[in-house]
């Protein structure tokens, strides 16, 4: 070919009437002066004519459809339902994740079933302990009591780690929330009231089982739905 | 019956109505498949698949040229068939005549009104065109078949093969260049008027 590919494409568009007015006029003026371009035009026209006059072939048989050729119709009807279900479960999962990590409180958190009861008890007993502490301070002014206290403290230091004594001391605090009268035996070994409050349950651990189970369940459901859809689509494609 | 009416009845599940559409368009669809794939058996498969697909996707037809919509489906079916054949290459069998001899072109190409030598020449030219088409890349072949054999305009072709107009122009020009070079080797098969034209 003695013309450029660009010119060949121009000629190709020209014979199909796809050139703009401006390009067509320019090309026609070039055709008047360039013999190579004219030869190429003749060739491309001839090629198109051969193709257009190529013998038309008829279908060798009838391609009419029979009902057994269309087995996928029922299967396809599941598709929209599955798609909708996947979207809904995904939205639900996102909502649960947002509520969980967004700091919203869930009433379903299991930690809340057990923990508040203990904490509440501890909080209720706390003022009593404070009050008792104040009384103890009053009593401490009495020398006898002071001696007793010192004695017990000494015992505690000597018998460090004696569980009975410690347990006894703790029991006294936990089991006697009522304010003791002045003649009641002093309990000098009473530990500070804060020790009786159970350690706070970490925020992350509070609602661990239920909320995580919900998230895990929803996530599994999304994955299962996606896999089923993928499998159905693949099977559909293989058949078609 | 009118095409739109047949389409509506097919959408309502009437397979007989759709089969009337099939009978009306099967030559065009088969011819497209044959020219794009280049083998009669595979073209038959692609044609059947195209009609099944058309029936199943009929609800996606939104008016306009039904022929273009159908050509788009058959072109995609051809691409699928070509891809399948690339994965599992098959040896093409030439059709046989009543005596078990291989024919260059099958009987259904014959026109009873033609003389034997004309039939032979016509079938040889058809084979030559197909051989030149087969030498093209799939994407060029589908474009040139749509424009030069099916007579589609550029815009419709762009819609059918789902490519920009510029791509269609460029692919068509390149395909025509390759075909022109290839067909020069079959000058003796051309009709007399075309032969004389080349001698000018």
CATH class of the largest domain in chain B equals Mainly Alpha
Shape of chain A: elongated
How many structural domains does the protein architecture of chain A include? 3
State the fourth-level CATH superfamily of the largest domain in chain B. Winged helix-like DNA-binding domain superfamily/Winged helix DNA-binding domain
Q: Ends of chain A: how far apart?
A: 44 Å
Strand content of chain B: under 5%
Average of pLDDT of chain A: 70
Stretches of chain B where pLDDT falls below 50 for ≥5 residues? Answer: 104-108
Question: How would you characterize the largest beta sheet of chain B?
Answer: none
Measured as a percent range, the helix fraction of chain A is 55-70%
User: How large is the radius of gyration of chain B?
Assistant: 18 Å
Order of helices and strands of chain B: HHHHHHHHH
Number of helices of chain B: 9
The helicity of chain B comes to 55-70%
CATH topology of the largest domain in chain B: Arc Repressor Mutant, subunit A
Which SSEs are present, and which pair or pack?
The complex is a heterodimer of chains A (240) and B (200).
Chain A: H1 5-15, H2 21-33, H3 35-52, H4 73-101, H5 111-140, H6 143-158, H7 163-175, H8 203-206, H9 208-239
Chain B: H1 3-11, H2 15-37, H3 40-56, H4 66-87, H5 116-134, H6 138-149, H7 154-161, H8 165-183, H9 192-199
Helix pairs in contact in B: 1-2, 2-3, 2-4, 2-6, 3-4, 4-7, 5-8, 6-8, 7-8
């Amino acid at each position: 070919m003695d013309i450029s590919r660009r010119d060949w494409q121009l000629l190709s568009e020209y014979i199909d009437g796809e050139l703009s007015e401006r390009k067509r006029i320019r090309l026609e003026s070039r055709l008047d002066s360039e013999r190579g371009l004219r030869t190429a035009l003749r060739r491309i026209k001839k090629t198109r004519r051969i193709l257009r006059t190529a013998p038309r072939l008829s279908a060798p048989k009838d391609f009419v459809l029979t009902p057994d050729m269309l087995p996928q119709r029922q299967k396809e009807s599941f598709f929209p339902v599955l798609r909708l279900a996947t979207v809904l479960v995904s939205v639900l999962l996102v909502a649960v994740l947002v509520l969980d990590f967004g700091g919203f409180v869930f009433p379903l958190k299991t930690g809340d079933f057990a923990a508040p009861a203990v904490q509440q008890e501890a909080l209720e007993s706390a003022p009593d302990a404070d009050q008792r502490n104040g009384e103890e301070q009053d009593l401490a002014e009495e020398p006898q009591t002071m001696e007793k206290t010192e004695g017990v403290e000494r015992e505690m230091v000597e018998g460090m780690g004696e569980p009975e004594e410690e347990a006894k001391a703790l029991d006294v605090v936990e089991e006697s929330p009522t304010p003791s009268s002045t003649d009641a035996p002093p309990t000098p070994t009473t530990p500070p009231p804060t020790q009786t409050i159970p350690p706070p349950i970490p925020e992350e651990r509070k609602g661990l089982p239920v909320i995580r189970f919900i998230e895990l369940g929803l996530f599994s459901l999304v994955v299962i739905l996606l896999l089923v859809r993928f499998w159905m689509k693949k099977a559909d494609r293989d058949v078609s | 019956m009118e095409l739109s009416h047949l389409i509506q009845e097919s959408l309502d599940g009437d397979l007989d109505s759709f089969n009337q559409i099939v009978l009306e368009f099967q030559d065009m669809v088969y011819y497209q498949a044959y020219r794009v794939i280049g083998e009669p058996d595979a073209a038959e498969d692609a044609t059947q698949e195209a009609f099944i697909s058309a029936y199943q996707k009929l609800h996606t037809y939104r008016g306009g040229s039904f022929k273009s919509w159908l050509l788009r489906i058959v072109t995609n079916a051809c691409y699928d068939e070509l891809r399948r054949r690339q994965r599992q290459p098959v040896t093409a069998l030439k059709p046989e005549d009543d005596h078990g001899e291989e024919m260059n072109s099958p009987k259904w190409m014959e026109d009873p009104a033609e003389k034997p030598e004309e039939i032979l020449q016509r079938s040889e030219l058809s084979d030559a065109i197909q051989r030149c088409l087969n030498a093209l890349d799939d994407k060029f072949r589908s474009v040139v078949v749509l424009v030069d054999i099916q007579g589609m305009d550029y815009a419709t072709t762009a819609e059918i093969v789902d490519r920009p107009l510029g791509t269609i122009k460029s692919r068509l020009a390149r395909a025509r260049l390759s075909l022109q070079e290839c067909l020069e080797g079959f000058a003796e098969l051309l009709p007399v008027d075309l032969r004389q034209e080349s001698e000018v």
